[in-house]
Structures are given as structure tokens and as C-alpha cells.
Specification:
The protein is mainly alpha-helical. It has one domain. The chain contains three helices and no strands.
């Protein structure tokens, strides 16, 4: 398996986890929704910036989740 294929699988996994997280969307408060949204957007952005790199995808999701959490806290 090449690094490019692993990166694609990581991206698909991140998106799948975002969808699974949205299955309980109605039971989440605003801060949790912001965290999930931020992680999804950050993961996609990290993948795009690094050309599908695993560390970029995971790092983007982590940073996006933190930013989303903080934005949701202030609402």
C-alpha cells in the first residue's frame, strides 16, 4: 500500500467519523456541534494543504476541533 492510498483512507475515515458524529447531532449542545464541525473542516483543509498527507489530515482535524470548541464556547 502506498502512502497516497493510506492518505486517502485516512481522509475517508475522518469523513466517516464526522458523519457518525452527526448521527447524534440533535442531542449535542452548541459547543459540541462546533467541535465536530471544526474537526471536519480542519481535517479536509489539512488534507488539501498537505496533498492528502496523514499528518496534515489528522493535525488539521485536531486543530479544527480545538478552534471549533473555543468558538462554540463563546456563543
Amino acid at each position: 500500500m502506498t502512502l497516497k492510498n493510506i492518505a486517502k483512507l485516512a481522509l475517508i475515515g475522518t469523513l466517516a467519523m464526522s458523519v457518525v458524529g452527526c448521527s447524534s447531532w440533535d442531542n449535542m449542545d452548541r459547543r459540541q456541534k462546533s467541535t465536530v464541525t471544526g474537526a471536519g473542516i480542519g481535517g479536509v483543509a489539512g488534507a488539501v494543504v498537505t496533498g492528502g498527507g496523514i499528518l496534515g489530515t489528522v493535525g488539521g482535524a485536531a486543530i479544527g476541533g480545538i478552534v471549533g470548541d473555543q468558538v462554540g464556547k463563546n456563543r
